[in-house]
């Protein structure tokens, strides 16, 4: 069960009086990245305010699960994911709650051999090939398939609701219910935030606002090359839930009529969420260019389930719609931009990287230097030639 977190306005003058000489930092956005950054900042002694206009985790972090995987086309990102996995493990111990399932991650398709080689060289993550029998045993939901397959034995499904709940609870005193209209740099190395109900100044502002990050950053002098689109994940019932935890699935094979499929079980393994790799375009003003696009993607997802996942009831149970923010160098691209007292993060498929990204954002805000790996010029997440 997810605990409801009350977000109450906090008078800025009162907070400043208690802050003393501590660095005052605002985090805009209480999705998984914003909460991770706030946790890391507070752990380093900063006085933190987290602004969120809706429920924590209700934007691009929405849904019951995400895939944790190490396999990427960029060896540096695979190693960064490995670092993040260790921090997820630490969070689980700290919160006393399992945040990533022990069900592992399965991938099928032509890219398996490259992924296995990359993991062996870059991430030191336990992974192995699966033959047809091993795949059928490990992934009982899947129809018969005899092509390349692998198991990422330290991957699994991130229990997103549990993670957001645990972080929100730990940071409840720092959450402020308000929407941020603008961020701008002031003199003397400070930044101003204007919200729906007030004005405040901070030593640093960290922007983790999903689709709202780029517009706010632009007003503060940072130009983020974010491409905006929208996608849908569809939830289905597991026909015969078993005692063993289900793995996540990435299907790049095309054997069942689609490529770029990603899917993950809910915490109770009774539901399974499936999404296509495709998205539908969003105009610069935030409007879906094709209003029926998400409906068509959802219908294709259900058809894929009928063909590829007979272990699921193909009648949709739920839909999660959210915006996608990608960078020009790849679907897994991520970067941190910083100028003076303002820092912003952007990218896609970031949930699994949240603990390590939070630490990097905290380091940037407190030292003024973006870790080299996460500078835009490094193009982290791009396929390496």
UniProtKB/TrEMBL annotation:
Its cofactor is FAD. InterPro entries: FAD-dep_OxRdtase (IPR006076), FAD/NAD-bd_sf (IPR036188), MTOX (IPR045170). Keywords: FAD, Flavoprotein, Oxidoreductase. It comes from the Bacteria. Residues 24-363 form the FAD dependent oxidoreductase domain. This is FAD dependent oxidoreductase domain-containing protein. The lineage of its organism: Bacteria, Bacillati, Actinomycetota, Actinomycetes, Micrococcales.
